[in-house]
Structure formats: C-alpha cells, structure tokens
Automatic annotation (TrEMBL):
GO biological process: alkanesulfonate catabolic process
Organism per entry: Saccharopolyspora karakumensis
NADPH-dependent FMN reductase-like domain mapped to chain residues: 3-142
Protein name: FMN reductase (NADPH)
Pfam families: FMN_red
Length: 186
C-alpha cells in the first residue's frame, strides 16, 4: 500500500489548516495507507531558514518526502499566497523532489477571493518539483472549519467536496509506483 506525507505549513499551534491535514491523514490511513504528518513549524527555525540540510531534523524531513508515494500540502492563505513557512521548506527539496509522486494541494483562508492562490502560486511549485500527478486542488473557507471539543468539524458545504478530492487523490495514489529511495524500491 502507498505511503502519504501530509506537510502542514501553518506557523500556528492551534491551526485549523494543520487539523484538516490530520483529518486527511486519518481518512487515508482508514483506507489502508501509511500516513505521516510533517508540521513544518516544528522544524528548527535557524536550520530551516538557512537551508541547513546537515541538520538532523531537516535531513529527516527531506527523507520523509523522498520516501512518500503521495504528498498532501496543507497551507493557510496569507496575503493571497501560501505560507512562507511552507515555501521555506519546499525550497530545501531537490529540484525534482516530487518526481513520481501524487500531490494534493490544499489551502484554507478567510475569503473565496484567495481561492486562486493555490492554482497561481502553489501549483506551479508542485509542478516544478516534478510531481507525477497534481490532483484537483481544494480550498476550504475558515468558516467551514470548527472545533467540537478537540475534534475538527467540516461544514456540510465543504465536507462532500473534500471527500471527493480525497477519493481522487487516493485513485491517483493507486497509480503511483512505490517511492524509490537511494535507487531501491521502498
């Protein structure tokens, strides 16, 4: 079965974006996939910003990307673009760091005015990293995400379309050969 790495690019500990990333990871795990969740905000800031690939945490995060068959990029929208934190991490990856992978770009934001940030800002980066298949991106309005206790609730207006996007991502994963690490099949 395929492995999926969710990469959350929010700087906030109480991020709804991070929680939607976890929600997707759980849904994919329930379908038999192995999932991991990389929260970029937990990486050492100095090493991240100085692109120190010798730092053990940065090196391990880059290796997680290499080992995954699929990537979910979850980012809040700031100033009509994806987060700078996510950009800093993506800049560390090799030129074709997403080669052979299925990628699901996902963003959250306060207004539908920012919905195109995914297609005009994030999707070109995904393609420049060599993604085999970037599935239909998805934008969630902040008002469609709420916490019920510790659980994330997705409003009905977004829940169905989000489930469809996750299903399409799963189908794209089914067509991805397992990741190759160091020239060997993983």
């Amino acid at each position: 079965m395929s492995t999926v790495l969710v990469i959350s690019g929010s700087p906030s500990r109480t991020s709804k974006t991070e929680r939607i990333g976890e929600h997707i990871a759980q849904r994919l795990a329930a379908s038999g996939r192995t999932t991991e969740h990389l929260r970029v905000r937990t990486l050492p800031a100095e090493a991240l910003l100085s692109a120190d690939l010798t730092d053990p945490a940065i090196s391990a995060a880059v290796e997680q990307v290499a080992a995954a068959d699929g990537i979910v990029l979850a980012t809040p929208t700031y100033k009509a673009a994806y987060s700078g934190l996510l950009k800093s991490f993506l800049d560390l990856l090799p030129q074709f760091g997403f080669a052979g992978k299925a990628v699901l770009p996902l963003a959250t934001g306060g207004s539908v005015a920012h919905v195109l940030a995914i297609d005009y800002a994030l999707r070109p980066v995904v393609h420049s990293l060599g993604a085999r298949h970037a599935v239909q991106s998805f934008f969630l309005l902040d008002k469609h995400l709420s916490l019920v206790g510790e659980e994330l609730a997705v409003h009905d207006d977004s829940a169905g379309p989000l489930a469809d996007v996750i299903e399409q991502f799963g189908k794209a994963l089914d067509g991805v050969p397992h990741a190759t690490v160091l020239g060997r099949s993983a």
